[in-house]
Amino acid sequence: MLSRDSKRIQGPLSTTPISAFLKDDREGIEDNDQAPALCDKDEVRADGRRLDECLPVYLRTGVITKAKGSSYVEKNGVKVICAVYGPRESQRKTEFSTQGKLICDVSFAPFSQKAKHLQESRTKSISNLLETALQCAVCLESFPKSQVEVYIKVLQDSGCTLAPAIICASLALADAGIETYDLVSACSLVFDDDHIALDPGVEEISQSTKRGIVTIGYLPSLNRISCIVQDGVTASDRSIACINQCINGCIRTHTVMKDCLVAGAKRKEELAKHQSKLE
After folding, report:
1. Where are the strands (E) in 45-135, listed by range?
2. 167 and 59 in contact (C-beta within 8 Å)?
3. Alpha carbon distances (Å) from 182 to 53, 81, 93, 185
4. Residue 269 three-state SS
5. 21-35 tens-digit pLDDT
6. What digits encode the pLDDT tens for the residues 234-270?
7. What's the rounded Cα separation, in Å, for the pair 212 and 215?
């Protein structure tokens, strides 16, 4: 017979699971308290866009002169700047590896959002997701026992930062001359029970408590999804439809990213010619 531990607090003989005390968010909600619909009967959103239309985006490379590669992205109330350094020797003295290492660090500016207490919790999660999205696109075998460091600073945050961060980091890697299999494009959408809205605005994101948000990172040339994040519960068929819609948005963004890199290369060429004339 086992001896009884008198110092341990004995639990109750019968217990009730915590799920019994949880209520469904949709229960007891009146029509007046529900979040507004994503669109009207003509499938036009509050900002005048159709459900499958993307927001305009501003992209620019070469914004930080001291970094090997850099970029700036402004989209949907999110402003992100990225700097890339390396490849350089790995700081940790480990055994020889035929593949390099990709290090991603995301930080928020103190003025980026009002709720400063949420920045620390989101910093680690976004950094891990960003590294996952870029890992399969970078040719790590081209710089053995070395590391490439990607630093992202969020200057303004509207709640949907992952997609602009992936775009910004991918452009900075290309601007730095790091070998990659393809540019990593990214896109987000918000969905409810009836509609799927691509590239949601700030108001749509803030009103998405009773909906869900999907963000993916996509390599169009390889037809490969490098990262997928879904916030919200829905049926599997609905999730597949959201992913396909996000892929369409990523393909459109990929075209704009290529144009941005071409424009950045032309600026570098003109700057080099101007400096040669001065010499």
Report:
1. 57-61, 69-75, 78-89, 101-108
2. yes
3. 24, 20, 30, 9
4. helix
5. 655 544 444 444 455
6. 888 888 999 999 999 999 999 999 999 999 999 988 8
7. 10
Nearest to 252 by CA among 74, 54, 60: 54
- Rounded CA separation 217/226 (Å): 5
Indicate the range of 59-73, 107-121, 221-235 predicted with least confidence: 107-121
The amino acid present at 38, given as its one-letter code, is L
| Strands of the 224-231 sheet, one edge to the other | 196-198, 185-191, 212-219, 224-231
Q: Residue 147, SS3?
A: strand
pLDDT at residue 34 in the model: 53
Residue pair 197/190 in contact (Cβ under 8 Å)? The answer is yes
List all residues 6 or more positions away from 72 whose beta carbon is below 8 Å from its beta carbon: 58, 59, 60, 61, 63, 79, 80, 81, 82, 168
> In this predicted model, which residue has the larger pLDDT, 11 or 205?
205
Mean pLDDT, the chain, as a whole number? 83
Identify which of 158, 129, 136, 153 has the alpha carbon closest to the alpha carbon of residue 216: 129
Determine the pLDDT at residue 95: 62
CATH for 57-278 is: 3.30.230.70
How many of the other CB atoms lie within 10 Å of CB of 1?
3
Q: Please give the structure tokens belonging to residue 229.
A: 């994040």
What's phi and psi for 86, nearest 5 deg? 115, -175
pLDDT at 77: 83
Tokens linked to 94: 């480990």
* 205 neighbors 160 (Cβ within 8 angstroms): yes
pTM: 0.82
